[in-house]
Specification:
This protein is α+β, with helices and mostly antiparallel strands and 99 residues long. 47% of the residues lie in helices and 13% in strands. It has helices spanning 2-12, 18-21, 33-41, 46-58, 63-72; strands at residues 75-79, 85-89, 94-96. A 3-stranded antiparallel β-sheet has the order 1-2-3. The protein starts with a helix and ends with a strand.
Amino acid sequence: MNRISKQLFLENGWTLPEGFCRKSRRDPPNVTREKWRQEKGAKQDPRHVEATLQEGWVVSDSRTAFEKALEEQGFCLAKGARRGFMAVDFRGEAYLISR
């Protein structure tokens, strides 16, 4: 699909997105389609939620520190039924935590 879309951009004289030209310019919080749909349904910007969760992970050196970082951003850490851990916001919306 990437090859086809790049070919369409080039054939039509459109400017390629920065992430296409250089991998370092890609959107850092790589949000999956599943997460995008879930977070859009919760009226949240998926990139913002993903960036918030990643930021909490980066500044943490333990599970307790990660929980505190999430709490500061309005989330709490919860054990998922089918998956590992999830972040839950004040409305009870659950968000997957990527590894």
